[in-house]
Amino acid sequence: MIDLHSHSTASDGRASPADSARYAAEKNLTVWALTDHDTIAGLHDAAVVCKETGVVFVPGIEITVNWPTGEFHLLGHGLTHCSDELKNVIAKLKAGRDERNNHIVEKMAEDGIVTTVEELKSFCGVEQLGRPHFADYLVHIGVVKNRQAAFDKYLAQGRPWFIHHNGADLDEAISAITSSGGVPVLAHPLSLYVSWGKIEGVLTDIVAHGIQGLEAWHPGARVGEAMRLEELARKLGCFVTGGSDFHGEGVRADRHLGKTSGGKKIADRFWDEELAPHLPNYSVDWWLS
Known about the structure:
The chain has helices at about 15-25, 45-55, 85-110, 115-125, 130-140, 145-155, 170-180, 195-205, 225-235, 270-275, 285-289; strands at about 1-5, 30-35, 55-65, 70-75, 185, 215, 240. Strands 1-2-3-4-5-6-7 form a seven-stranded mixed β-sheet. The protein is globular. The mean pLDDT is about 95. It has eleven helices and seven strands. By secondary structure, the chain is an alpha/beta fold.
């Protein structure tokens, strides 16, 4: 059993990178990827624990890309180092995220909830804030009952505290990943919010930019949809990956490490036959140094 998509406190997960790696070992995963949003901050700690426990570690990132509808997230799998291009992309995204967070805090204050970005970071124990952290804070102070309610009432698109977060240019994001030794994979394609009638044409255009893989198997897709996406990936000449998009125990009822669409275990084939052959220079040495 493997998992090629998970998160830690380096972005919006519940456990530290080291503890996330230990959890992967406890769950008897043989291959595990850490793919935090717009950051590589957790890869060293995770790599160290994976070396100690014998888990094959796949250093990764999930880059936010500009897209007019839904969400476009680009996974970078098998990073062998952090290139200057990737550093620049991360820095730009961090600046945009910081600006958005300040605006959200301002909107909260307008509605009588006064806090600061630094207070939120301290409460959540993170350096990079995302909307899930705002949601957790609202649960903590009793404004809502759970994270989903916070999004539904305040933080989701169309809600009063929603602030658009500018992503990276697609070509820039792909180059940042490939220049760092990784391969670009489109995360959870259904999050693009494109109809099935149009998705083949849209994905054809996206893949033409240099994306090599599609995450067809994701808990956000039904089994039938995942099978349909895998078939489409083959048609487009892409390899296929599977992940849980795990953010920690209790965060999402449908997200469990090592499991994907329909609660199915993530098969070894997604590493052995799909991703690994596209990583001829795979190494974690740089992250251990």
